[in-house]
Amino acid sequence: xxxxxxxxxxxxxxxxxxxxxxxxxxxxxxxxxxxxxxxxxxxxxxxxxxxxxxxxxxxxxxxxxxxxxxxxxxxxxxxxxxxxxxxxxxxxxxxxxxxxxxxxxxxxxxxxxxxxxxxxxxxxxxxxxxxxxxxxxxxxxxxxxxxxxxxx
Length: 152
Known about the structure:
It is built from five helices and seven strands. It has helices spanning about 15-25, 30-40, 40-45, 90-105, 120-130; strands at about 5, 50-55, 60-70, 75-80, 110-115, 130-135, 145-150. It has a seven-stranded mixed beta sheet. The longest helix has 15 residues, at about 15-25. It starts with a strand and ends with a strand.
């Protein structure tokens, strides 16, 4: 099994939206902020200093993750999704490994993330990678009820 992590390109623009929508619609709902950022990822993520990665398996884009710039040293791990037909292949772990390695190589000091405690598999993965729960600000994401961070 060969899973390759590749960087965002304009030809792959729609995948961040379709993969995240599939996940959001299954577990929650699409918020206005999701619609805006996922429809214009270059403007709302890349042009603000962030990064978008895709997982390719059998020549198909099956996963995505982003690092959203908050400050020069703090980025949010977000917009992570794996296609339903590719779940169970370890793609989430591969994306996580890539994001952590990329962050360290680029002198990012801390990663934060927002999630929901009903997503037990995701929360377990974050704990496994050393993320710890911290106090969450109000009004960031309507569906989020947990904030975690990892110092690199």
